[in-house]
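Student: I would love a firmer grasp of how sequence relates to backbone shape in proteins. Thank you; the sequence and its tokens follow:
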Amino acid sequence: MKQVVQNYKSGELAVLDVPVPGCKPGGVLVRTAFSLISTGTELMKVSEAGMSMLGKARSRPDQVAKVMQSVATNGLPATYRKVMGKLDSYTPLGYSLCGVVEQVGAGIDDVKVGDLVACAGNEHALHAELNWVPKNLYTPVPDGLAPRHAAFGTVGSIALQGLRQGEPQLGEVALVIGLGLIGQLVAQLLTASGVRVVGADPDPARCELAQRLGAVACGDPGAAAVEAAVAELTGGHGVDQVYLAAGGGSNQPVELAAHLARDRGRVVDIGKCRLDLPWNAYYEKELDVRFSRSYGPGRYDPEYELDGRDYPIGYVRWTERRNLACFLDLLARGRVDVDPLVSHVAEFEDAVETYRRLEDGELKAVAVLFRYPGPAGEGEPERAAQAPEVAVPAVRRTGTAATPARPVNAPVRLAFIGAGNYAGSMLLPHLAQRAGVTLSTVVTTTALSAANAQRKFGFARATTDLDAVLGDPSVDAVFVVTRHSSHAELTRQALLAGKTVFVEKPLALTEDELASVLAAVEESGNDRLQVGFNRRFAPLLRQAKSRLGVRTGPASLRYLVNAGRLQHGSWYLRQGTEGSRFAGEGGHFIDTASWLLEADPVSVYAVATAGNEDLQVVLRYPDGSTATISYVTTGAPGFPKETLDLVADGKVLKLDDFVRASVHGPERWVSSRLPKARDKGQSAELAAFVKAVRTGGPMPVPLESLVATTAATLAVPTALAGGAPVTLARTR
């Protein structure tokens, strides 16, 4: 299928061939009839992409701050690879469309195949022929409403949410500053609410259009006519509400709002304009400044948008989806007219040229639609006293061993399921440059991410069809690099398909998931499995362990992980589906401790601060050794992320964030500092994995060790709940 994309590094716009998205549960697959270009938001993004790197940095200081924090935490090279990888990727455009339901996912019962729906979201309502849209981001189109008009649903919801923040009342007077697409819709919605509207915009054509659609008076923000109209309509008191729908770097809209608002009036910011509030003016009138966040309640909440969990109407009257349905109803009943706002309808295949004309100013437009081929586009239509034991399942291999014969000199053919940030920055760059490796197929749920990975790393094929990998006999090994909740099931399927599997941590989020993976091993006899516990492969740590020498007595290991806080909205916070943060990452540190101590743990004890922000996990080993892992989120951002001390036999091994290591004892050893990089072992790990695949030799880490680490990680919440050590009992 075709999709409009942009490379943020180069600014290139393209209509790209990408795989068709899969129809996942909880949503529908929609074939687009019309999609709307946001001439404000989208053109700003397109313009930023055309800037120099310095210009991009100046325009997004928030992103620069994140980059600097990443440098402090992960080092410059890793940060550079991550940032450049993200910049040099195609990103989607679009967030408002109307189309026909082509496929219905499990759990959806409010629409059927063939229904016309309006869709929202900058990840789901894209300028693409097909989009997968979750339940709370689409709504059925009322009978009789044309698809080209229903495509305005998202921007209409933005305007409607701004209106609700202003709380207009019948008979009031409002000032709308900025008469672009959002401003025009705000003005019409206010008029439909019985509010008299004055508009301000430097473009005479936009002023005339707003007056034709119901505004009482409009004019240039700097002209006396706007002030005179406000004085006449309000008896000199000033407007009840001001809606800031303007963009740009001028502070004039904010100053004009203070000048023309009445005492204790309301100022609502909808657009993205400069907000240097003149303190005296806003203080003297005690103005109420409010912000409108996109389409309404639910926006940026993944449980609402992706999981389909609605807010009770008795507590949240207007949500994203209800705003969307309300705006479509207003359109269908003729209370709002969007047809005069349509300056141009372009064929979808002409998307790149349309963006060029808009950016160059050749095409003057309030709203531009893309029309897609197909009938819709053409025809318009309580705590326990003692925690129980936790079983460490035994690994049984009763089936036929599944190590396929392969020519030793033939390239190792690898497939990836998932191609997100970690895969793109920490795995694929190593594999793409490795001799004797062929990147065969990449599978993602999002079509564009598959196409990006194919373009950047040279995959022979990109698809959203999992069977294209599992059923391909030429694929030697499969990498599972998806979100945590899918790891166990995808690993199970790949093992049953006879593939060697590399799965990123965690292997499983529950004991049942772990059991399902081991059942697949037993059924198939295929135990060719590696989990991405890369730290045991880190050259610096391996060198330090060698310098420590053979241990004769029990050891005490202390591992501080200064994990830091997650950004709001991170999918790591979705514990209901993706498990706790420690469940996802803790296996790294347990595996490292077990490798250093050369044994698997026999018990787990855990305590945490209020809210489980800082977690202490104590592992006991068969020879009496202990390992304490402090996994904390409240530390200083500038402190190293990982520091480790191992004390045994009168010696101390110390690791400082994979930058420096030392051993203190009868002889002292200090590593040379590595100023340019933190090598946490990914490259060596991948080399060992590829070698095992090529030669059919043993996997780099015994499966029994992977299972023991996973079981110990899963035992942590049980230990927290029980307040006592949990014994890890090996089954036979």
Remarks:
- The chain has four domains: 2-151+311-378, 155-291, 390-533+683-700, 536-679.
- The longest helix spans residues 703-722.
